[in-house]
Amino acid sequence: MKKGMVLNIQRFSIHDGPGIRTLVFMKGCPLRCPWCSNPESQKGTVELSYIRTRCVACGKCAGACPCGAIRISEDGAPSTDREACESCGSCVEVCSYEAREIAGELFDINRLLKEVEKDREFYANSGGGVTVGGGEPAQQHDFVREFLKRCTERWLHTALETCGHAPWEHLEGILKYVDFLFYDVKHMDPGVHKRMTGVSNELILNNLGKIASKRSGPEVVVRIPVIPGLNDSKENVTATAKYMAESGGVKGIELLPYHRLGMSKYEQFGMEYKMMETTPPGSEHMKKLQRVLESFGMALGQN
Predict the structure, then answer these.
(1) Alpha-carbon distances of 175 from 11, 142, 151, 272, rounded to whole Å
(2) What is the rounded CA–CA span in Å between residue 184 and residue 303?
(3) CA-based, 20 to 30 A from 95: which of 179, 183, 228, 271?
(4) Which tens digits make up the pLDDT trace of 149-197?
(5) What dihedral angle (degrees, nearest 10) is formed by the CA atoms of 205, 210, 216, 217?
(6) Domain boundaries, the chain
């Protein structure tokens, strides 16, 4: 049976599709957005998280590590060589203070279905369902396609959150079983998009064009993460709104203001947060961008 690398299962979500939803985060993403609030979702493998504020420097982790990846400094605090660490979980097992955790777990489809079925009553009462996000779900397209197929066979409403950077045949296979689609568009300029995320937007926009041109398929909402100094200019939002209005097949655009809620995770996974100087966009600026969307009939609100 197919297995997928799942980062997390979040219950009672109300911002990821209609009604109350269970959100399944898949692990692995082809983009490297510096503002990412789930940096632990970028790699498609299990990873070790170290929460320094919980650590009491007992040293048990160093003794348990079979790779010799953990060393104790002069002040008694442990440090982990991320290159040598194999994320085996031996240090997690001996930590009594939950300072160490493993992010990512393999699920087979039956087990994942059992997890989302636990919330069926909430779906029925609210018009909700199951949403698969990430990371990028299309990185594990075979597993996600089969999982969503099984959800639809159980009459569960399905939604997908994607950055759109995937071979068309992978996305197309998944979308057969998707009722509602959130599609991220970070920037309309391919060069700027590559500087922002590590990849061009050409594949992303090509795939969106194919989705929008279909007469049948999921309801589509485009999402723009509003990142000050990177993509929050009136010109970029205007270009995005114009493109979506002319392409047709898109319900509207949702603005997602930049936030720092995931900043602490970078230290936990041995990563550098590169946006320390960036502050969230002000409410007046967001209103101006919202008015741009309204002028094209593409406004859906701010999340």
Answers:
(1) 23, 12, 13, 35
(2) 13
(3) 271
(4) 999 999 999 999 999 999 999 999 999 999 999 999 999 999 999 999 9
(5) -50
(6) 3-44+106-302, 47-103
CA gap 283, 271 in Å, rounded: 30
Class of domain 47-103: alpha beta
**pLDDT, tens only, 66-77:** 999 999 988 888
- For residue 221, count other CB atoms closer than 10 A to its CB: 18
Matching residue, tokens 């990512």? 104
Residue 273, phi then psi, degrees to nearest 5: -90, 115
Would you mind telling me the total number of residues written for the chain in this entry?
303
Domains 3-44+106-302 and 47-103 share a fold: no
Neighbours of 213 (CB within 10 A): 11
Amino acid at 278: T
Q: What is the dihedral of CA 285, 232, 183, 30, to 10 degrees?
A: -140
Does residue 78 contact residue 60 with C-beta atoms inside 8 Å? no
